[in-house]
Records
---
Amino acid sequence: MSRFQPRIAFLLQRSQADASASSWASLSAVTTEIVARLREVYDARVDLLTPDEQPLELGHLRAEHDLYVLKAKTPLTLAVASAAAATGATVINTCEASSLTRDKLATTAVLAANGVPLPPSWATGRPALLRDLLNGRPLWLKPQRGSQGHGVQRLMSAAEMDAAECSAHDVYGLPVPVFAQQDVPSGGRDLKVFVVGERMWAITRPFPARTLEDKLGAPCRVPPLIREAAVACGRALGLELYGVDFLVAGDEFFAVDVNALPGYKGVPEAPAAIADYVYERASR
Amino acid sequence: MVKVGVIAERRYLSQSMPAAALRALEARGIWADVMCPDDARFAPETGLVHIARNGWTADLNEYDVVVSRNRNGLGLAMLSYAEAAGVLTINSYASTERIRNKAHMAVWLSRAGLLCPPTILARDASTLAGLPRSSFPLILKPTYGDNSQGLLLVRRPEDLETIEWSDDLLLAQRYLPSDGFDLKLYVCGRSVFAVYKPSPFNGDPAAAPRPVNPTPAMVDLALRCGATFGLEMYGVDTIETSDGLAVIEVNEFPNFTGVPHAADCIADYVLARARAARVQKGAARVTVPTAHRVPAAALAG
């Protein structure tokens, strides 16, 4: 009896450095491992797609795969994912969930409304309106879209706040909003939770992580309330493969960042678990 | 008394929508709270919106309905909060996001099998150079933008060479010639209005909108567009072709230009929806447990 052989596509972005190369030199180690397991253990047909290279004609849309893994979130990969979903394919994580998760403001709003504990947070197009929130406690200023700490500033004084005045405007002429979070004392450690469907791992790391060793962190048990909060994040945002960063402050904890399909650094079991999950979802 | 919140960018307050709808609500005894993201500080953790202009603070949790005419990121975050907190939103955050990004709108229109001009997504203009001459003329559109912002008409493939596209995604649509007028369909709930409006490429500055009675085909097309995106108040730009009406674009909460009594229709619709939602919410309180809530309390061992 032959087993169902699913067709799976990974939506990726070819980095500038690879543009001329034909190989996948910069394919991350995690993705390489997932793809290998899907091919070898499950006999799946796996294609690595970089839709950024050719125009996409919407009239000729046809999902050639049963399941799409949305790894790179460029405007074109998102559009391809949306198109694939439109023709009936499964997309993990969905285009809507991936887009929402990239927007820190909307994500924070949705998580808060679903009862996930968050540091006191504000958003405004006029940073001057944040001045009276300083109160001797620093504020973290983060861009609305951004990852891996890009553009994050820690502000202590009103003078620093004034210097952070918005310069970018959106296409509608309004200032691009800034997102501010109150500094919560974290005991210098954060807890990164990684989720694959129903499975979950955590690593604890010094905050901020400086060295590679710091970034790998140390595996730890997921405390029950944090497990519950991580599950609530996934449900609220519609994510299946994701990570949540928590700051733990004494007996309190706060979710500070959610990432769709992160790198699962420090969790060696993750690639196999992702491959198993993806196969299971493709066969459903 | 129904509590109505309106999220609107300041640029819209001088336009007929939502201003006329606000007046129509007042005529019905409802004074809506208007929240402009332009001078707001929003606390997404609590749902409180502080309005700097008058030092007033609104609580998004307290509204029966939040009506949005806004495309700014801050206003959208406010809308997403209201929706996640169980407040009725018109239009919803999800439906607004589906059409705010024109690439996604085009994908969803194709998904629904609606007649559209042939549409291509590309990273930049140079990748369109391989298209056959018969694909032209093309209209290039940025992913985001409204009021015909940033539209570019490209008549021949050679013209692509001089185009520098600054956006990170380009939407190219076959230019369908019209007689200088587009048919605009406006929808509020199940009410559909039709108006012939001068197209963005109409040379006559004196050309004025002309309302007509919508045909059953127009009504059907308009409602299918709404169902596709989950919109309740919206406009559909169409062009008449030999194959029927083609959909060019869908917009959430437009100005309803040229539609008589649009403001009354909107006010009645919003109030009816809000009252129904209130009844539902009341019922939900009795039967359904409250939203999943994780207490920010002690980390048990």
---
Amino acid sequence: MKGRKQQAQKRDEVRRAILDAARHLFIEGGYANVPIRRVASHLGYSAAALYRYFPTKDDIFNDLAEEGFRLIMAHETLPTCPPDAPPLERLRHFCWGVYDFATIYPEYFYLIFLDRSAPRLKPQSRGLRAIAETAPNVRQVIEDCVAAGELRPGLDIATVYHVLCTAIHGLSAQYVCNRLPEGVEPEAYARVIVDLAIAGLRAGALDGVRMVPVAAAAAGSRTSRRAGHSRRQAQSSNPRR
Amino acid sequence: MKQQRRERRQNEVRRAILDAARHLFIDGGYANVPIRRVAAQLEYSPAALYRYFPTKDDIFNELAEEGFRLLVSRETLPTCPPDASPVERLRHFFWGVFDFARLYPEYFYLIFLDRSAPRLKPDSRGIRAVKEVYPRVRELLDACIASSDLQPGLDVATVYNVMCTAIHGVAAMYVCNRLPEGVDPEAYAHTVVDLAIAGLRMGALDGVSLFGTCGDAASGASRRARSARPRRTAG
């Protein structure tokens, strides 16, 4: 009994060591340039021993990606936001979480989002399914903003989620890559970017816009029901006002 | 005549070095590619290469300048109809950020996303090339202010940098093949640009000055930025 427990614990430790070593090596050398052998030799294992834990390099990446996405979620789910904060403030905290993740876990951010040689995650991968779990949370914040009269009704949650994340993504990438404009204070700059994105949302830039097709947005996104005309509508509602 | 030929030959060699270096840096990561490998790829001796570029950073600086000039060329693209509204012209300008990434993903990656590449100095030719575009941004903002699409008092350096950062994300996702599953890249990028322009028109950058007056390094600007956080209602 005790032996089996110890064995399981040992296995978990080895898994952890493999993931940590792989993360560092992938980031230094670029995912495509690091053969799984090098991860093994870095740890003093044989390649065969490592394959017992992770049959392919992509399996390692998928595990790291899932870990990363769970860390993003932990930041998006407003741990720092006072529970009685007004809805708009909660939306701001959500956006802030996207940036906050990058500042705390730059390695995960780089590996998941900026390594061009890493594989694209499949829609049904655990990482992307993990991130879809935040949808109800985002929906709640948006609905509260609508109820408070801060946003107009009818916003597509998946579109709002992705576009807001994308608008903050550039800031995160600049932070992680040390490319923020010379002389700005990162936090103050980040706040301005978050404010710009939220102001654009409040100005109605995403009213009636539907960017993400039903299938991809499916998890947790109830509005996907009223879909079908996603792309064209998004295009035609490109404001050319 | 002979000298002309020699100059042409020298320019060809320079070009070959820059192109080879760009490819190698992108494949291997800037820090992982020694200058020897660039030389070997071209079958030059390292000494021959050093005559053109004394250090690896000199190659990077040259590539960065080229990249920034390409970025500016997309921002100032003359495809916008001359009778377009001021806001439309502003939109065309910032579309250039995504357009640059779409057309020159290698330059985009090397300049902005390779963590191991050196940070460009403020007085580098690349950064100076970008700043040359500020008067054009000023002109566009003034036209938008004259047509009452924007409030007066916007700071050029702040608007330029913040708008570029807001669009940087969609460009980076495009270059790294990380756009959300199933979206049309151009339509998605248009939406992001529209969001940023709408935020600007909503007044998110009114009174915000993140840089010094000359558009260079900031001083107490960040404090001002904080107090300028918009708390306005929609409408």
